[in-house]
User: What shape does this take?
Amino acid sequence: MSASKYFNMIVAAAMAAAVFFTSLLYYLSGNQKFVEAMSYQAAMPYEEMFDQFEILQVEIELTQEDWEDILANPLAEEYKPCDVRINGTLYTDLAVRTKGNTSLSQVASSDSIRYSFKLEFDHYDGNKTWNGLDKLVLNNLYCDAAYVKEYMAYDIFRAIGVAVPYYAFADIQINGADFGCYLALEAVEDSFLQRVYSASGKLYKPESVSFGGGGRGKMPPADGSMTQTPGEAGENMQKAFESAFREPFDKTSAESGGIFGEAQEKPAAERKERGGQIPEITSDLPSDAGVNGMPPEQNFVGGEKDLDQASGKGADLKYTDDNISSYSEIFDNAVFDSSDEDKKRVITALKKLSDGEELEKYIDVDACLRYFAAQTFLVNLDSYYSILKHNYYLYENNGQLTILPWDLNLAFGGFQCRDADEAVNSAIDTPMQEELLKERPLFGQLMENEEYQKSYHDYLNRIVEDYVGGGQFTATLSKITSLIAPYVKKDATSFYNYEEFVTAADLLKAFVLLRSESVSKQLNGEIPSRDSERDENTSLVDASFIDLKAMGVQGSDGAGGKGNIDGNMFGGLSLHGRSPMIE
Assistant: This one.
């Protein structure tokens, strides 16, 4: 570890001590909520740079030759040297590359160049950081017409006490040209581990899928050359997903009456009878459309995918045997080097989890329950919950496991939901297909314990009553949409135009208010909390006026503005349907 990083650890430790004593004082004064909010993290020098209500100015400079090579070979994810100016301060000799799996492949297969990026400060010099941060992630807001879904999802995790990376919006320039409004994130790597866990423990990013030319699951050749063109990658991914999923729904917004569907025409009494209430939707954004910002016509069809979903190789966190090789989906995706002893500790914890033994010794139960409460509320199925079982980090320390969130752009029903009614009313006790409960023991096994299930329900209720009911959600959404509106107007590479952004932000507000209503009714028994307990007579919250595609969903024509995206790839596998892999 470099001297500067060691110094940062000392600073973090000092700050942690300060936080501890401050928390102790608050605890003695009875403010338990403050203690819960502060208990999982200590300050780092870069914290002040992530002001959630300010826009980071990020200017990336690299040679024209390297930039053209990135654009010609995006799936290679090869680091290129660059200089970066952040809020006016210049940082030299850094490295930048593209990032992503599905989003990377689909953008590469299109006419768009709006890639997500990673900026690595210590790539060429181990002493370099950005005020202590080793890596900055710049997400392109793929499949997010509202621009704020991932931001708000992290905000909900944070509000319930889950350790999340720092996040803020960023205005990007590349080689002097405006590039767009992105979400900047603290990478879940060295600095995050120092900040949250005092640099102890091991991190893994389990992944059940691999993509040609991208991600840790299937790395490109060392020389950065590509084994397939972006177009070939798209065709391969399309075939892979079509072989894995049922033919999804083809209900369009036109068939449902547009953004507000038929709900506007329904009598209030009928809406009330169904248990629904259309909330007042008032935009805090200016009404003028401003700059269109719409990209050229795009044809997103995906990339190569390795779909061996039927058998677990670790990403489901299910114990199979004591062989390290049986958990390749975990250990092949280690964030840091891990020894056989490190891996054996993980396997032991998984065995205890599957057996339901000594759970609190081997699982950070409370942290996991908070995570699952937020994940369930968000209806985020591109996650541990789905057949893909990915987009999360697994943290291990002294043999105890914790799950952490990542990649939240498809939250709020953006993946595997047929329509808003299904997403808003997603069953809180079966947030995945019921057949998967035993295949996802970190959730299913914890729910077998009545005390843990009650705590899970309590955390859900806290989101409903405190975060949404207390006004934090609407206040935050209003503030950040107003903050980024001027940047959306001038976004040079935007997947969506300004009008679509305004509409999607309003629909997101409506979605969360209705989701909160449904979760509340499930908690008090008005709506069954398990799919198997529902039938055609069950009165659900009416969300039929919400068009999920207008908010941005995987595999719809909203994933790239007006691009010709194949809607039969991802968007229609129902949460409550049956996968051919399971049947």
Notes: The mean pLDDT is 79. Residues 3-200 form one domain. The chain is about 35% helix and 10% strand.
